[in-house]
């Protein structure tokens, strides 16, 4: 799965200066079927954000590389579980390498097949983010019947697809983003280090086309709300993050936000069908 996102120029708060925003994400997963019916999961994720963080400075690049290692266990015809370890390097990759670029995350997800059309999902995601420890309980469901497909995972995402023709789908999407990056910048004859805390909620409509079975091209347009790219001192952290709530958050950002705004996205995905 690959996606590219771009936004028009957005105004910084209390300033006439503007910036656009570019995002690139490449997400590859390789399942390896084991003899006992379980599946070994491995893959990589590359993520890049390019925008102005300060209204009087140039654009900056923030990138992350994630290694996915895990297993999907089939307990019965109804129950299965997935466990993923997600070591990550997230930084602007300045001159010096440091352990502050390194994060470790993990996902545990349980699935119960209610019927051939409906599967319930629940679990949790945890990560040692730059802003502090972060835990997200996950609850959702997957439903597919006839022309309708729904994939919901609260509070992370919702995807709704409806087939209007055999190769064409339309739908709506919602996605919440919480990410952090180590930031190293030159300062006279030395370097100063801070971190970036990125938050966003994206709501969009899309149209998809499947020219070849399993290959999906999707165009999307929407709006990002609650969006922020805030830079903080390394020592300025929260006590604990639980989903949408942050405890002990008295941090003072070093920059100002730019406004919420529209975005356009192009996606290319490959879907492996289990049944013909």
SSE layout:
Elements: E1 2-11, E2 18-33, E3 39-52, E4 59-74, E5 79-91, E6 102-113, E7 118-129, E8 132-145, E9 148-154, E10 157-165, E11 168-187, E12 190-212, E13 215-233, E14 240-242, E15 245-247, E16 261-270
Parallel strand pairs: 8-14
Antiparallel strand pairs: 1-2, 1-16, 2-3, 3-4, 4-5, 5-6, 6-7, 7-8, 8-9, 9-10, 10-11, 11-12, 12-13, 13-16, 14-15
Walk me through what this model shows.
This protein has no helices and 16 strands. It has 276 residues and is mainly beta. A 14-stranded antiparallel beta barrel has the order 1-2-3-4-5-6-7-8-9-10-11-12-13-16. The protein is globular. The model has no long low-confidence stretch (mean pLDDT 93).
The best one-word shape is globular
Strand content: over 45%
Would you tell me the overall average pLDDT? 93
Gyration radius, in Å: 20 Å
Q: Cα distance, first to last residue?
A: 21 Å
Summarize it.
This protein is mainly β and 276 residues long. It is built from no helices and 16 strands. 20% of the residues are buried.
List keywords for this structure.
276 residues, mainly beta
């Amino acid at each position: 799965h690959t996606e590219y996102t771009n936004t028009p120029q957005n105004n910084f708060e209390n300033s006439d200066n503007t910036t656009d925003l570019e995002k690139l994400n490449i997400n590859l997963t390789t399942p390896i079927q084991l003899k006992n019916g379980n599946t070994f999961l491995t893959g990589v994720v590359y993520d890049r954000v390019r925008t102005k963080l300060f209204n009087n400075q140039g654009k900056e690049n923030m990138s992350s590389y994630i290694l996915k290692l895990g297993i999907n266990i089939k307990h019965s015809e109804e129950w299965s579980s997935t466990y993923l370890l997600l070591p990550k390097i997230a930084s602007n990759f300045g001159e010096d390498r440091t352990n502050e670029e390194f994060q470790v995350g993990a996902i545990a997800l349980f699935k119960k097949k209610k019927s051939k059309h409906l599967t319930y999902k629940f679990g949790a995601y945890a990560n040692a983010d730059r802003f502090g420890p972060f835990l997200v309980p996950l609850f959702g469901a997957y439903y597919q019947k006839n022309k309708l497909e729904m994939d919901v995972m609260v509070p992370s995402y919702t995807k709704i697809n409806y087939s209007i023709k055999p190769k064409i789908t339309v739908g709506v999407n919602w996605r919440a983003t919480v990410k952090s990056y180590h930031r190293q910048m030159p300062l006279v004859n030395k370097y100063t280090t801070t971190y970036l805390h990125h938050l966003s909620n994206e709501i969009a409509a899309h149209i998809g086309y499947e020219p070849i079975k399993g290959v999906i091209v999707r165009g999307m347009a929407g709006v990002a709300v609650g969006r922020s790219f805030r830079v903080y001192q390394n020592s300025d952290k929260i006590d604990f993050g639980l989903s949408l709530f942050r405890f002990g958050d008295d941090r003072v950002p070093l920059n100002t936000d730019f406004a919420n705004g529209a975005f356009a996205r192009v996606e290319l995905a490959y879907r492996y069908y289990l049944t013909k």
